[in-house]
Amino acid sequence: MISELLINAFLVTIMLSIAIALIKTRTVIFTVILTSAYSLVAALMFITLDAVDVAFTEASVGAGISTILFLAAMAYLPKKEEESISSEFVPALSCIILGGILIWCSFDLPEIGQLTAPIHQHIAPEYIKGSKEDIGIPNIVTSVLASYRGYDTFGETIVVFTAGVAVLALLQKKNPAKKNKSQPKQKIRKNA
Amino acid sequence: MHNNPILRISTKILFAPIILFGLYVQFHGDFGPGGGFQAGVIVASAFILYSLVFGIEAGKKLFPSNINLILLALGGIIYGGVGIVSMLLGDEFLAYNILGSSPQSGQHIGILLVEFGVGLTVSNVMIALFNAFASYDKIKEK
Q1: Mutation for testing the A interface, residue in B68, B93, B118 having most A CBs under 10 Å
Q2: How far is B15 from chain A (nearest CA, A)?
Q3: Domains recognised in chain A with CATH numbers
Q4: Number of domains in chain B
Q5: ipTM exceeding 0.85, yes/no
Q6: pLDDT at B100
Q7: To 10 degrees, the CA torsion angle through B60, A161, B104, A124?
Q8: Which residues does chain A have within 8 Å of residue B53's beta carbon, measured at their own beta carbons?
Q9: How far apart (Å, rounded) are the C-alpha atoms in residues B20 and A175?
Q10: How does pLDDT run across B32-69, given as a tens digit for each residue?
């Protein structure tokens, strides 16, 4: 119990210090690297919560590939962020109020790992039993993701696909579109 | 980065094990942590590492963009296709029980195919995004 508390306190301290460093820095590349480090600590946090699949996703997607994609995208941005001119009072106040409300609400949450919590009473027992008997897969996360919630995962895949196609359409349009557009125009001019 | 021997050699050593690990995560997702999303990202990271070190042109030679775009769409088609096949066999959309001889083997086949579709789409979207960002400058110059 004490060791768990120590580990959590350690991780939260690192997360907080990364967040404070993120506010202070104005260099784009440091922002990207610090966000990646934050994701990695978040992945460790998920491991302490026994959510290994989520931790795996966070480490590979959050800390890994999104950092590379951010770096590739941010090559087109100026190296340094501009100093903001407007006052920081109102945003800070709204953040503090929102954070306060969230902390206040968290007192109503059931304790982590408590069996009588509503989330462990609803359909979770059925999934835990069914994953072994009906589906025959030891990893319950996979059986929920791919079988019980197959529609949602299908939607997620299509979302990833759509996002990729949208970015490709935005970035790759320039060359062929120019040629196609310029040719008809010239023809019209010649006819006129 | 092309002339740095440490980067070049370590990339060549790491490339195959990264893909092997991606395949392990992909097909071992039923028994341990992992699945299509993570495996797709890991496989994509191997190709992106290659492009980062050897240049985007070499990366495109290794994995041509037209194949990339075809596979990008194929993942979603595999996922949806599993649903349609189960519908044609007389069950509901994405109900895998009917795909195999017993309900459990049907679920196994369905989950394996569906995860494969997810991994295919995710990895190819990531590679396509990286290629698009990395070669954007050259398109602008032309």
Answers
A1: B118
A2: 16
A3: 1-80 (1.20.120.1200)
A4: 1
A5: yes
A6: 82
A7: 130
A8: none
A9: 37
A10: 888 889 999 999 999 999 998 998 889 899 999 899 99
